């Protein structure tokens, strides 16, 4: 029987795997196949899932998952080994298992009155309004960084414009060297004084931006006040 006919009829035996340690390429290919085989289908994330599912996804012990999900709403219940087991919505459960990213102000900005606990909303906005009233009474309505940047730009504009006064002055060619140098020195002295008033002096009294002050005050506070604070 010809080789072509043998191939067509499938008479040849399948090649046997080689004995011995697999090559790096074979090990990498096997690892890739195993990883793909163990990945859950996306539909698994749309159904209620249990503690074991979260544990496998996050690589955390089931007891730690159970503790973090104590206040998470239960979607449904199932029975395993004769015991009831809670099932959770995947996205809701993950919000209890993964700490939020960003600052507390960013988180609060994404909340609405219905999703924010009343005691948290009341405490935060009372403190924020008190800070705004205090800053308004003190005349601190601008962030220092913005004010200093504006002063620096004004100082630069005055310096550039004033240097052209002498060159554009009518009768410039009739000035003696002494008169010309006198005017140049006066313009330079004026720019030095303006720079000191607009840039150097405000920096001596510089404070942090208001948003950073509020963020610093909230950094060490718990967003969930204790019952004793109510």
Write the layout of secondary structure elements.
Blueprint: H1 3-9, H2 24-38, H3 51-58, H4 62-68, E1 76-80, E2 83-87, H5 90-97, H6 104-109, H7 118-137, H8 144-168, H9 177-204, H10 210-219
Mind explaining what this structure looks like?
Residues 4-12 and 221-230 have low confidence and may be disordered. The longest helix has 28 residues, at 177-204. By secondary structure, the chain is mainly alpha-helical. It has helices spanning 3-9, 24-38, 51-58, 62-68, 90-97, 104-109, 118-137, 144-168, 177-204, 210-219; strands at 76-80, 83-87. It has a two-stranded antiparallel ribbon. Helix 8 (144-168) runs antiparallel to helix 9 (177-204). It has three domains: 34-99, no CATH class; 104-139 and 212-229, no CATH class; 144-206.
What gross morphology would you assign?
Answer: elongated
Portion in beta strands: under 5%
Helical percent range? Answer: 55-70%
Give the oligomeric state: single chain
What number of domains?
A: 3
In sequence order, what are the helices and strands, one letter per element? HHHHEEHHHHHH
Give the C-alpha Rg.
36 Å
Cα-to-Cα separation, first versus last residue: 91 Å
Sequence stretches where pLDDT stays below 50 over 5 or more residues: 4-12, 221-230
How would you state the average pLDDT, rounded? Answer: 75
Overall SS class: mainly alpha
List the total number of helices.
10
Tell me the number of strands: 2
